[in-house]
Amino acid sequence: MTQRLVVDPITRIEGHLRIEATMDGSRIAEAYSSGTMVRGIELILQGRDPRDGWAFAQRICGVCTLVHGMASVRAVEDALGIAVPANAQLIRNLMIAAQYVHDHVMHFYHLHALDWVDIVSALNADPAETAALAQSLSSYPKSSRGHFADAQARLKAFVETGQLGIFAEGYWGHPGYKLPPEVNLLAVSHYLDALAWQREVVQLHTIFGGKNPHPNFVVGGVPLPIGPDTDSSLNAERLGRIRDIVGRMKAFVDQAYLPDTLAIAGFYPEWFAQGEGVGNFMTYGEFPEAGGGWMIPRGVILDRDLSRIHPVDLAAESEVQEFAAHSWYAYGGGKQAGLHPWAGETKLAYDGPKPPFEQLEVDRAYSWLKSPRWQGKPMEVGPLARMLMLYGSGHAQARELVDSSLARLKLPVTALFSTLGRTAARTLETKIIVDAMGGWLDQLVANIRAGDIDTFNEARWEPSTWPAHAKGAGAMEAPRGALGHWVVIDDGKIANYQAVVPSTWNAGPRDVAGLSGPYEAALKGHVLAVPDQPLEILRTIHSFDPCIACAVHLTGAGGESLLELKVV
Ligand code: NFE
Ligand code: MG
User: Fold this and answer.
1) What is the rounded CA–CA span in Å between residue 568 and residue 491?
2) From the CB of 67, is ligand 1 less than 6 Å away?
3) What is the reported pTM?
4) pLDDT at 229
5) Residue 130: which CATH number?
6) 190 Cα: distance to centroid of ligand 1 (angstroms)
């Protein structure tokens, strides 16, 4: 048995991810990505009313809390030919955008920053110098010496009691940490500020969708009437609160998230030259525009060639397929086939070693994730794919943001194909999306003023109006990337339901041809400075913002109990 480095669990992610790596000295020769948790939501959906599907599908995840609801209603609307009123589309855009801004800021400060920020070093910072640095970077108001001294005191209290709590297992003092103490303190302080900020921004979902996480949707629109002054409708007072929340989102992105990303990235230029992945990128498109198309286009980029964007057809059997050659599923009558999601299967068949085990059987099956492919090729999805699509298609703000950020960091555009390129792309797309929110809100208000208060299309609500057999594909860009739900409806009920999810594209195992997906490809070649503190693996894996709960859409102590899901 070849000895392997095992990192399990990868922390500061959503879900359960294990990375194994064969080493060539201190260099990663081959990496293996395994989702170690299985769920059964695609099975739970079978037999249900398609109008209810979103409420079940949305429970796939608690981080990207609305995206599976959104993809589900779009899949059913596609199957039944339902058009969505303009106001509902604008409200959906605002809700999706709020999800992005919240999720990306939280990822940066609470999940990813500690790969670059040594919180113990922040104890040695001079709060006055930190304040001077912060004030030189932006107009963020919480930049006084006193604010940083308070943040440092809170941190010190943690450390002195020996209770670093959620910070306890960090690799503090690892030679890979390069930030001066003052930058570390700045980031730690914004980590704490972002915790408070997110409590306010989720209120956008509670106003438009009743609650967060998991706001409400409806097939055919949004379940929110627009009306003057009732407690349950969208009125002038609530629109005013939405505008206030959008302003708070934008202020934090402009004054903290964007400047912090660039300031921290500037200390790690070598991370703009490694961790790329597969070199192919895919988007499904998002933020539908009134005249058709999307703000972020749909397409595929192959081999880094930004001059050519290939079209993507979600209904074409030969384009999006999932393979299970190295997954714990029985599949397609054999393990070699790739299945389009309308014909997709979820048949659990664990045949791996009995846990706890030393290492995965990587020549056989080693993950609960499948391996999605586009025309047989692995694709990276997510913020980097979207920024490349915007950049390649000539989006003016994207060009300006990418070019000016890279110029400031003295890096070429090829630096995007990297670990920190991915992280920077996430920040830059947040800026583009938060800036677009004001325009959608203005449009919504203008429609209402002009007398259009329609938020729901009831034309095909009754199952008696549906065809006996229908198929639909619902796509969206979730924060982590291209998300598709494929539904087959027979006689008014869901006959088959398949979700092919961003983290499945990025974190899936090798395919039938032995080709790695983005996580595995991105880790290959990393050199570990301290092999029992694999900080480098965390940096690159976190740059994708994993969500394995989504990717393997009840864990039991024994695999046998999982079969009970089939009879729900
Ligand atoms: Ni559970 Fe998700 C997003 C979706 S994951 S977080 O974004 O879809 O890959
Ligand atoms: Mg699936």
Assistant:
1) 20
2) yes
3) 0.95
4) 65
5) 1.10.645.10
6) 24
